[in-house]
Structure formats: C-alpha cells, structure tokens
Design brief:
Length: about 200
C-alpha cells in the first residue's frame, strides 16, 4: 500500500543516516543485533506512521547541556523518528546514539515517550569482542532497565545489575550503555521538548 511504502521510505532514510564508525585500536567485526527499522517498529509498536525530525543544537543549547548535565555533545546534529498512531497522536520518538570505545562502537536505540521519559532502549550494534562482555547483560535486558527515567534521572548501573558479579569490562560497558540512554533523553529534552515549550518550530 501507499502508506506502507511511505513508512518503508522513512525508515530506510533512518538506516541510511546511520554513521559507520571505527576505533583506532584492535576492533573485531561489528555485530548488528537489531536493524534500525526493526528497532523503530518494535519500540513504537502502536505507531502506524513515521516522520523524521532532524535538529541541530544551537550554541546556547550545547551550553545548556554542558552546564546542566556535564556532557558536551561531540556532534550538534540529532535525528529522531517520530511515530504517530492512526489518530495522529504522538506515540514517541526513537533516536540512535553511539559511543566509540577502544574495542569499537557501541550503538543503542532509545525510544522516548512524548513527555521525555525513556520508553524503551535496545543495544543494536557492537563488536564481537564487546558482545562477549555484554551478552549476559543484554539477555537480562540491561538497556530496557532505564525505562521510565527522564533526563534528570540517575543513569548509573541499575541496582539488580550492580548485585551481579560483574567483571571490570562488564561494568565499564554497562556504564557506557547507561550513558548512551541518558544522552538520548537529554537530546530529546533540549532539542524537542524545550523548543516546543518555547514555541520554537523547526
């Protein structure tokens, strides 16, 4: 159908927007755990149509992020896939965030509710080496554990994971995952919610 073709086109655009990154050290092959379009459909399962919103943070917004959350985005550009239901109501938004580590990139898909809280999160890509450390945590739903948190919440390692006997590398990468989910929540707050509250339209 025409609607299905439009949906596929929008989600294909998201996939094409994914930037391939590589670390300078001993990087093993990348493993894709979930394709971008599958991540969007899974995490915004009640959405029937999608649109891509691309935003570039202003200098003032970058300064706000740095001063309020202690993080300076390396790239001022962000892309959100907005999903709406059959009635046109916003279901949520999905963005993809990446951290390049010495063992290669870790990529996470984060879905945000309309109010800016985390709806869901999935680790969608990482290297084979990193997977050996993160696989037990992925199987336990590490990224999704941050559901319900907002940009001002604590994104440290969740309590039930802290109770596990994590190795040094598992703890390191668990912290990376939490940081990535937090960054997505911050970007949505600043680039979408705060702009809408100020009456700014892209």
């Amino acid at each position: 159908t025409m609607k299905a073709r439009r949906t596929s086109t929008v989600l294909a655009t998201v996939c094409l927007g994914a930037v391939a990154v590589a670390a300078a050290a001993h990087v093993t092959p990348t493993v894709v755990l979930l394709k971008d379009d599958e991540a969007v459909r899974t995490m915004l399962d009640s959405a029937t149509r999608y649109a891509v919103r691309e935003v570039r943070l202003s200098e003032d917004e970058v300064r706000t992020v740095r001063e309020r959350w202690g993080w300076t985005p390396e790239d001022d550009f962000s892309r959100f896939v907005l999903g709406r239901d059959a009635g046109g109501a916003l279901v949520g938004a999905v963005t993809f965030v990446t951290e390049v580590t010495i063992h290669g990139p870790v990529r996470v898909a984060v879905a945000l509710n309309p109010d800016g809280t985390v709806r869901d999160a999935r680790i969608v890509g990482l290297t084979e080496e990193t997977l050996t450390w993160l696989k037990p945590l992925i199987d336990q739903g590490l990224a999704a554990e941050y559901a319900g948190r907002s940009a001002d919440s604590d994104f440290g390692i969740p309590e039930r994971f802290r109770r596990m006997r994590l190795s040094k590398m598992q703890r390191f990468y668990a912290e990376i995952v939490g940081s990535l989910v937090h960054r997505a929540a911050i970007l949505y707050r600043v680039a979408v919610l705060d702009r809408e509250a100020a009456g700014i339209r892209d």
